[in-house]
Prior knowledge:
Layout: E1 3-8, E2 26-27, E3 30-31, H1 32-43, E4 48-52, E5 65-68, H2 74-84, E6 92-97, H3 105-114, E7 120-125, E8 131-135, E9 138-142, E10 149-150, E11 154-157, H4 158-167, H5 176-181, E12 187-190, E13 209-223, E14 228-230, E15 233-235, E16 240-241, H6 249-262, H7 267-270, H8 283-296, E17 299-309, H9 315-330, E18 337-342, H10 348-351, E19 355-367
Parallel strand pairs: 1-4, 1-6, 4-5, 7-12, 17-18
Antiparallel strand pairs: 2-3, 6-11, 7-10, 7-11, 8-9, 13-16, 13-19, 14-15, 17-19
The chain binds zinc ion.
Zinc ion binds near residues 218, 220, 243, 249 and 252.
Amino acid sequence: MTNxxxxxxxxxxxxxxxxxxxxxxxxxxxxxxxxxxxKAIKSKLFKSIIIVSNIPIKxxxxxxxxxxxxxxxxxxxxxxxLNFIKNKRFKNVFIHDAARPNFSIxxxxxxxxxxxxxxxxxxxxxxxxxxxxxxxNKIKNLNRANLILTQTPQCFDFKxxxxxxxxxxxxxxxxxxxxxxNNKKIKFIKGEENNFKITTKSDLNKINIKNFYGIGFDxxxxxKNKKLYLGGIKIxxxxxxxxxxxxxxxxxxxxxxxxxxxxxKDIGTLYPSNKRRFKNIRSRxxxxxxxxxxxEDGYFINNFDINLICERPKVSKYREKIxxxxxxxxxxxxxxxxxxxxxxxxxxLIGKEEAIACEVIVSLNHYA
Length: 368
Ligand code: ZN
């Protein structure tokens, strides 16, 4: 993997009319530029991410992310970033404007696979507007059918782009311009309507956010000579949970909750218990394909509320550990997870420490 993702976040955004540049404004639960960063990370396509910013960013801890200072104009910022990575042996580079936070990971993957056969791949959309252009005092019509609007991320063979950029000292609005001006071929692929540029404050509300909720429930019998797994970690206990996997009721209930919110049936349909290949599977591994689907389909996790129903082990003793484990597995912050322990007054199988149950409610955002 030798891709680098360059995020241009050094713009002043005059039309945004705010003291805080728009790239840093809060947008759907986080700073606007972080949407692009998080998607680049989640896509797993990039060895390194460079953020070009004229404001220091302290919150970044990930070592594969570097923040460098930008130039006065966009093209100078991208030149600086390309210079910064010139000796780092990247085969490809993706350049993206931080003001477009709503592209999908699917689009990143499509760009990446088109780049295997091309030196430049650029997403575009068509327009429904009738379009004109002005030369001096004359306004002329443009044929809408021939018109394409280009977006970012745009991706390139690093060497080719670097050499074109080095020679350029005119103001350009994207790197595709350099390829066109130098008669170099670009592969244009279909972009996304949602991938619009946030320019004014009203653009922040342009996208339609929908909320979805899912509920999950699971119960397993406790048996001797089996290890107990809860929330992805081993908990010392006299018995473990029976099942053809490790019996992790918390993860199973979370999976059902997520599938419910995504309206994708249930865990049993996805992992039939009569299939030998799922025998003894660690539940955490059952979670990953679902999280991948979640990202690709444009869902974002808001929060989980979890009830673990058992007489013992004492939830308060392991709460912190379980939440830490879940936050790592689910790639969410700890404060997005709540875990409650519920005993059953020694009633029934659960009361006799012969079973453990779990119920979960999950809330997701989807924007379209
Ligand atoms: Zn289960």
